[in-house]
């Protein structure tokens, strides 16, 4: 009998959670390796690219925890069973797996999942215009999961941008392919786009496949706050489900149900907080449900969780403007956040 633990809830895991066979594990992405070093396991199942001419298998579009898990298994003599997928893009991580180290290998018999395209937010251009005020030429970008930040950064008209991110999505790839993000001014890994996961998107996969200017590395490298802090002019742009008037961010739950996870938001915000010129930005549409529900709320609801605390967010950006939270009092924050809420909901936010 199997029981499943996941650090990131998805549409596939939620029915399993409702059936009582999948539990959520609150685990920052950068701490995955520490978890595997402290927890016993018996076998490792991975999906890799077939071996190259040197007999080494690539992690492909997703490294994440897997390099640490594989290395721990090799250290302890734990068997590694791999599906080899010829459609998996081949990427460089510096930690490719020797084919002879695999206990068993078999060809993948199912196609990899593909992200369902999400229509671009009608407010993406407006949010991008506000983000532009916070992102100078030469900034290094991290962009979290979410259609709003991804679509907004795709529209940035800046030059000399760098990419050091958890997820490499279509928006960042657009910046790279049109030359806006050439990584030329990065203090760390100059000339390289760095990610730990690439979106399951054909355009993204074509971009990363055997691209010497891209490295898909383990989360222990990409999301280490100490390494993140080495970047100058760092701009971390993440999304949220709701933000309360204190500036607390819930990026994981809806009406008490776990629908996502912390991902890299916490790790990148902690790293950016160590950089004098780093900014931690939440970008989101001001409403959900066709305008019925405000994403700016008086307080987080029952069953909500705090993904990023009020001490970890510098700016909140919606289609209605920029709310600066850094260096602001509680009352100043409250007013700033109400100002970027949808006008139809502002009176309810002002009045108890």
Report on this structure.
By secondary structure, this protein is of the alpha/beta class. It has 2 domains: 4-107, 3-Layer(aba) Sandwich (Glutaconate Coenzyme A-transferase); 124-350, Acetyl-CoA hydrolase/transferase C-terminal domain (Glutaconate Coenzyme A-transferase, 3-Layer(aba) Sandwich). It contains 12 helices and 24 strands. The chain has helices at 13-18, 32-38, 66-76, 124-132, 147-153, 170-177, 202-208, 219-222, 225-228, 265-272, 330-339, 343-350; strands at residues 4-6, 22-24, 44-48, 56-57, 80-84, 97-98, 104-107, 140-143, 162-163, 167-168, 193-195, 197-198, 214-216, 234-238, 242-244, 249-250, 253-254, 257-258, 279-283, 287-288, 293-294, 296-297, 315-318, 321-324. The strands form 9 sheets. It has a 6-stranded mixed beta sheet, with helices on both faces. Strand 8, helix 5 and strand 9 (162-163) form a beta-alpha-beta unit. The longest helix has 11 residues, at 66-76. The chain is globular.
Main attributes of the structure:
single chain, 352 residues, alpha/beta, Glutaconate Coenzyme A-transferase, 2 domains, six-stranded mixed β-sheet, three-stranded parallel β-sheet, globular
Secondary-structure topology with pairs:
Layout: E1 4-6, H1 13-18, E2 22-24, H2 32-38, E3 44-48, E4 56-57, H3 66-76, E5 80-84, E6 97-98, E7 104-107, H4 124-132, E8 140-143, H5 147-153, E9 162-163, E10 167-168, H6 170-177, E11 193-195, E12 197-198, H7 202-208, E13 214-216, H8 219-222, H9 225-228, E14 234-238, E15 242-244, E16 249-250, E17 253-254, E18 257-258, H10 265-272, E19 279-283, E20 287-288, E21 293-294, E22 296-297, E23 315-318, E24 321-324, H11 330-339, H12 343-350
Helix pairs in contact: 4-5, 5-6
């Amino acid at each position: 009998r199997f029981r499943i633990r996941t650090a990131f809830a998805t549409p596939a895991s939620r029915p399993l959670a409702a059936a009582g066979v999948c539990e959520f594990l609150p685990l920052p992405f950068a701490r995955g390796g520490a978890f595997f070093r402290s927890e016993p396991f018996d076998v490792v199942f991975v999906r890799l690219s077939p071996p190259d001419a040197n007999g080494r298998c690539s992690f492909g579009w997703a490294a994440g925890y897997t390099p640490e898990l594989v290395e721990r298994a090799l250290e302890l003599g734990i068997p590694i069973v791999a599906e080899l997928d010829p459609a998996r893009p081949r990427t460089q991580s510096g930690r490719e797996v020797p084919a002879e180290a695999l206990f068993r290998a078999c060809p993948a018999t199912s196609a990899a999942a593909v992200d369902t395209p999400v229509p671009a937010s009608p407010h993406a251009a407006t949010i991008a215009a506000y983000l532009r005020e916070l992102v100078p030429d030469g900034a290094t970008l991290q962009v979290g999961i979410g259609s709003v930040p991804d679509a907004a950064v795709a529209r940035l008209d800046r030059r000399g941008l760098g990419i050091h991110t958890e997820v490499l999505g279509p928006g960042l790839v657009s910046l790279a392919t049109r030359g806006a993000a050439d990584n030329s001014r990065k203090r760390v890994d100059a000339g390289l786009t760095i990610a730990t996961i690439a979106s399951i998107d054909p355009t993204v996969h074509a971009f990363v496949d055997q691209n010497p200017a891209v490295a898909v590395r383990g989360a222990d490298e990409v999301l280490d706050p100490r390494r993140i802090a080495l970047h100058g002019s760092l701009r971390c742009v993440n999304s949220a489900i709701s933000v309360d008037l204190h500036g607390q961010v819930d990026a994981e739950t809806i009406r008490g149900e776990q629908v996502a996870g912390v991902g890299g938001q916490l790790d990148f915000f902690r790293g950016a907080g160590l950089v004098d010129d780093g900014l931690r930005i939440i970008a989101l549409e001001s409403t959900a449900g066709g305008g019925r529900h405000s994403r700016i709320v008086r307080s987080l609801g029952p069953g909500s969780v705090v993904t990023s605390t009020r001490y970890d967010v510098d700016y909140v950006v919606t289609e209605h403007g920029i709310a600066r939270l850094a260096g602001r009092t509680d009352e100043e924050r409250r007013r700033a956040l109400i100002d970027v809420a949808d006008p139809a909901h502002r009176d309810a936010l002002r009045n108890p």
